[in-house]
């Protein structure tokens, strides 16, 4: 495949995440650290999920057949559960760290929980996307023909778009999840978990990319709207922002310059 | 007022003229360590750091150990023991706290600073700062830098000398007991945290860059993954029929390598003790010459071969000559900070590539593990040669040879001596080239920057505040070993990028944790153990557990 495919898919999958990183996170060292810790937590959750799947496979003696497929599905669902669990663990850690930071440094404002929710979601998302897609990307640089055995020739594009939506979903889930934890609204947590399970389950019907992708994007848009309102946005503030009339934002930008 | 003058950038010695330096750095640092008012602030900040740490401690850690660390700020002696204990507990080291209470041993070994006698005792606490472990890492780097290179040098440089030279530096670094000058109460805590995150990032960036260079080279230039013999320090081959034999050979290789390193270190300490400065200095120069010219030439040759680019010898000679000459000047004398940092990163990457090429697989992993254990032991136990080196350097009030330390920030100071109001504007020196050299002092610098030393009582009319921002320093050996780990993961991970990325994240997290521990314990901590442990755990688990899982998911196009 060509360099065009490589760069195109790379930027489709990671472009928005890179932009989010450059514009919101790269300037503040503390946010970068929290991002990397979030990525680490996702990595640890993946480790535990792989361990579970590996053990399940060893118990069933690696027999081929439908049992492997069921094990894989089970592995995916358990992995989703473990990821959300680690998101909760990360929330607890951040809560403790915030309190610690406040006692040490009462003058300087520690990052707010909402910001940390966003940063942690982005960390989870980036790590998840990278792990899912980077091997495929590196293969796309090498020689080969896509879909020669009857698979879809749009494999790379689909994977890229799927990766993108997963990254954005993680960001939104992070925001909603942390907000649910803060306000003790356990229903939010449940909804996050269920939508994550739904998105993963949708990928089980993977040869039918159309349905898979479109429904996942729909879910992403819904989550995005919910996260926007949870994070304190409103229709009015959106209008002000789009019309460049948001005085607070403009003043803030001026000040930071 | 004496103190005020001391406060001046005693920052210290220019690494470029390590031999002929006045008492500067050490004396300066200690001097700085001293206003009584600032010490209280230190204690308070230490307490608050303890609280933060406790907030993050999992409940199952010995509560006693955690609780005892609170005493750090109040009573140094007990705090030292508790610190040692807490550190030992945390580090899961099994040395006896009494034996390895470096705090007490450091305290007894330290000579009080010449000028601030009354603060000496309290100042000691300040002195053991985060910088120390940076020192350690430096020490380690030096050691690693030289210890493992049995490169058959055509010019016949004594390899040993390089090793000892580096070991000397490393050792010195490791036990550096740099004093953190006291800050006004409350200010230091803020500054610690305010600058803590920034300095973590200032370390993340060069470590990431070095790793990126190494991984990019490994993935593209096949020369560095081909097996072409082994170092003389790892004589046992791994081409054995049985697994047990291979394991035994790798352990033997590791033993030889580590003992070479230890021997070099001891040799260096001996040299330093007997004041053979010229010898050491010469070694440093020889080793950087070799790196900058020979290794660069080989690297350039391989890269050109890989991309099939033709280059004639005159051009090659000109390129390598310019690169090497500018590198020597930047590293050993004066040069722009960014250029120096770039050169240090490049030579670390080159060194790491040599290790990756010439260390057989299993030996490399065992050596990585062994060197982190050695680092841990050498830093925490009071009988190590490194500690002796540092103490000797402290007694003599000299900087240790700073050749191989990465420094990340510029240092500037505002002069305090002049009270002339008309010159006050001029005194706001934006950048003093002289000062920049100070940032390379490998000895006696607190790792976190000191900012804000308020005017001393002796200068009531002085509006200028002496402001210094120190950079974070990390030894090149840490760079090298981190890059070796990630490079090996890239080279042997069967073309898998996930393993490389997992190791990369693990190392960064280890570095972060080490810095946090450093801020909490204010004690010399080695930079290698936590990162390398995480890196090794993640390498093996990702390669064996995560990779099959992710591959299966990818082949079925499932997303988790």
TrEMBL record, chain A:
One of its GO terms (molecular function) is protein-macromolecule adaptor activity. It is a multi-pass membrane protein. The chain crosses the membrane at residues 6-25, 32-55, 70-94, 115-135, 155-178, 190-211, 217-235. It is found in: Membrane. Keywords: Membrane, Notch signaling pathway, Transmembrane, Transmembrane helix. InterPro entries: Aph-1 (IPR009294). Its main location: membrane. The keyword Membrane applies. GO terms for biological process: amyloid-beta formation; Notch receptor processing; Notch signaling pathway; protein processing. GO terms for cellular component: gamma-secretase complex; transport vesicle. The keyword Iron-sulfur does not apply. Belongs to the APH-1 family. Component of the gamma-secretase complex. Potential subunit of the gamma-secretase complex, an endoprotease complex that catalyzes the intramembrane cleavage of integral proteins such as Notch receptors. This is Gamma-secretase subunit APH-1. It comes from Mustela putorius furo. The lineage of its organism: Eukaryota, Metazoa, Chordata, Craniata, Vertebrata.
UniProtKB/TrEMBL annotation, chain B:
Residues 137-170 are annotated as: Disordered. It holds the Pfam family Presenilin. One of its GO terms (cellular component) is Golgi membrane. It is an enzyme of class 3 (hydrolase). It is found in: Endoplasmic reticulum membrane; Golgi apparatus membrane. Keywords: Endoplasmic reticulum, Golgi apparatus, Hydrolase, Membrane, Notch signaling pathway, Protease, Transmembrane, Transmembrane helix. Its main location: endoplasmic reticulum. GO terms for molecular function: aspartic endopeptidase activity, intramembrane cleaving. Its EC number is 3.4.23.-. Homodimer. Belongs to the peptidase A22A family. This is Presenilin.
């Amino acid at each position: 495949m060509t360099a065009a495919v490589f760069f195109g898919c790379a930027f489709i999958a990671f472009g928005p995440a890179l932009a989010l990183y450059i514009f919101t996170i790269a300037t503040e060292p503390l946010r970068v650290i929290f991002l990397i810790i979030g990525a680490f937590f996702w990595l640890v959750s993946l480790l535990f999920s792989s361990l579970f799947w590996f053990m399940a496979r060893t118990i069933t003696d690696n027999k081929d057949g439908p049992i492997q497929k069921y094990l894989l599905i089970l592995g995916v669902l358990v992995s989703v559960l473990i990821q959300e669990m680690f998101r909760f663990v990360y929330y607890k850690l951040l809560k403790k760290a915030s309190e610690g930071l406040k006692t040490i440094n009462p003058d300087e404002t520690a990052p707010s929980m909402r910001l940390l929710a966003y940063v942690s979601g982005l960390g989870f998302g980036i790590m998840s996307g990278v792990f899912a897609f980077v091997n495929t990307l590196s293969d796309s640089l090498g020689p080969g023909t896509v879909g020669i055995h009857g698979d879809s020739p749009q494999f790379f594009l689909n994977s890229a778009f799927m990766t993108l939506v997963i990254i954005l979903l993680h960001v939104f889930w992070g925001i909603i999840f942390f907000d649910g934890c803060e306000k003790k609204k356990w229903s939010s947590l449940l909804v996050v978990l269920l939508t994550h399970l739904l998105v993963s389950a949708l990928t089980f019907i993977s040869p039918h990319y159309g349905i898979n992708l479109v429904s996942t994007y729909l879910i992403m848009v819904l989550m995005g709207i919910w996260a926007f309102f949870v994070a304190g946005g409103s229709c009015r503030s959106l209008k002000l922002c789009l019309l460049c009339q948001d005085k607070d934002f403009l003043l803030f930008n001026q000040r930071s310059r | 007022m004496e103190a005020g003058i001391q406060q001046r950038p005693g920052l210290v010695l220019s690494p470029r003229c390590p031999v002929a330096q006045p008492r500067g750095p050490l004396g300066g640092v200690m001097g700085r360590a001293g206003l009584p008012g600032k010490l209280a602030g230190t204690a308070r900040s230490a307490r608050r750091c303890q609280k933060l740490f406790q907030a993050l401690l999992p409940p199952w850690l010995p509560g006693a150990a955690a609780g005892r660390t609170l005493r750090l700020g109040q009573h140094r002696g007990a705090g030292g023991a508790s610190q040692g204990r807490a550190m030992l507990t945390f580090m899961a080291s099994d040395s006896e706290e009494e034996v390895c209470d470096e705090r007490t041993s450091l305290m007894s070994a330290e000579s009080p600073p010449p000028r601030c006698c009354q603060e000496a005792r309290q100042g000691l606490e300040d002195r053991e700062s985060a910088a120390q472990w940076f020192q350690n890492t430096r020490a380690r780097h030096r050691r690693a830098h030289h210890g493992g290179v049995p490169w058959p040098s055509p010019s016949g440089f004594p390899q040993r000398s390089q090793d000892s030279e580096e070991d000397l530096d490393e050792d010195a670094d490791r036990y550096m007991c740099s004093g953190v000058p006291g800050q006004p109460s409350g200010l230091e805590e803020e500054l610690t945290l305010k600058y803590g995150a920034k300095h973590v990032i200032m370390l993340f960036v060069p470590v990431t860059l070095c790793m990126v260079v190494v991984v990019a080279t490994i993935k593209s230039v096949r020369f560095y993954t081909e097996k072409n013999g082994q170092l003389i320090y790892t004589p046992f081959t791994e081409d054995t029929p049985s697994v047990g034999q291979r394991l035994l050979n790798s352990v033997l290789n590791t033993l030889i390598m580590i003992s070479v390193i230890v021997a070099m270190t001891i040799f260096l300490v001996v040299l330093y003790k007997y004041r053979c400065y010229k010898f050491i200095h010469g070694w440093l120069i020889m080793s950087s010459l070799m790196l900058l010219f020979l290794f660069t030439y080989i690297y350039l040759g391989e890269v050109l071969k890989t991309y099939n680019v033709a280059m004639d010898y005159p051009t090659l000679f000109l390129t390598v000559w310019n690169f090497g000459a500018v590198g020597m000047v930047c590293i050993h004398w004066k040069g722009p900070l960014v250029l120096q940092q770039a050169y240090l990163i490049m030579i670390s990457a080159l060194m790491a590539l040599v290790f990756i090429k010439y260390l057989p697989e299993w030996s490399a992993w065992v050596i990585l593990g062994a060197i982190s254990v050695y680092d841990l032991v050498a830093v925490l136990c009071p009988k190590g040669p490194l500690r002796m080196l540092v103490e000797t350097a402290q007694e003599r009030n000299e900087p240790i040879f700073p050749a191989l330390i990465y420094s990340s920030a510029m240092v500037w100071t505002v002069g305090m001596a002049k009270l002339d109001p008309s010159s006050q504007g001029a005194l706001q020196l934006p950048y003093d080239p002289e000062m920049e050299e100070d940032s390379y002092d490998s000895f006696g610098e607190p790792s976190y920057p000191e900012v804000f030393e308020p005017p001393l009582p002796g200068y009531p009319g002085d509006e200028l505040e002496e402001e210094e921002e120190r950079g974070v320093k990390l030894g090149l050996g840490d760079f090298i070993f981190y890059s070796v780990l990630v490079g090996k993961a890239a080279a042997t991970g069967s073309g898998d990028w996930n393993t490389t990325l997992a190791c990369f994240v693990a190392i960064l997290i280890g570095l972060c944790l080490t810095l946090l521990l450093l801020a909490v314990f204010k004690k010399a901590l080695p930079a290698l153990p936590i990162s390398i442990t995480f890196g090794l755990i993640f390498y093996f688990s990702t390669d064996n557990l995560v990779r099959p899982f992710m591959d299966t998911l990818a082949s079925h196009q499932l997303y988790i």
